[in-house]
Amino acid sequence: MIELSVIRDIVAIAGVFIGLTYYIMNIREVRHNRKITLTTTMLQHFMTGEGYRNIMELTGMQWDSLDDFMQKYDHRVNRENAAKRIALWNTCNTLGGLYRDGMLDLKTVYNSS
How many other C-beta atoms lie within 10 A of the C-beta of residue 111? Predict the structure, then answer.
């Protein structure tokens, strides 16, 4: 017959194992939620009317050569366009770095477009 102390020890070990499993699952869920929060925070720059207008303006830029680009869009000639361009590039660069480091939820980025 199994002694009561052995049963008590088995129940205690099972309780610790279940608690550890729950803790690990909870930590994974928190990390996933943080990824989604960071991703949506970063994408808010693009998801506003102003963000869409900036992207449409920047993707609609037309030039034939480097000299043509410099005459139309250089930071000394067109400061507003240069500021929009640099802001967009920096945001995309940050998103790329976060993706590379595994801190970005790619499903959220894909579903946001």
Answer: 8
Q: Report the sign of the C-alpha dihedral through residues 22, 26, 27, 32, in that order.
A: positive
Quick one: three-class SS letters along 73-86? HCCCCCHHHHHHHH
Strands, E assignment, the chain:
none
pLDDT of residue 1: 59
Give me the pLDDT at residue 60, please: 92
Give me the count of residues in the chain: 113
Count Cα atoms within 13 angstroms, Cβ side, for 36.
10
Q: Show me where the domains of the chain are located.
A: 4-111
- Summarised one tens digit per residue, pLDDT across range 59-78 is 999 999 999 999 999 999 99
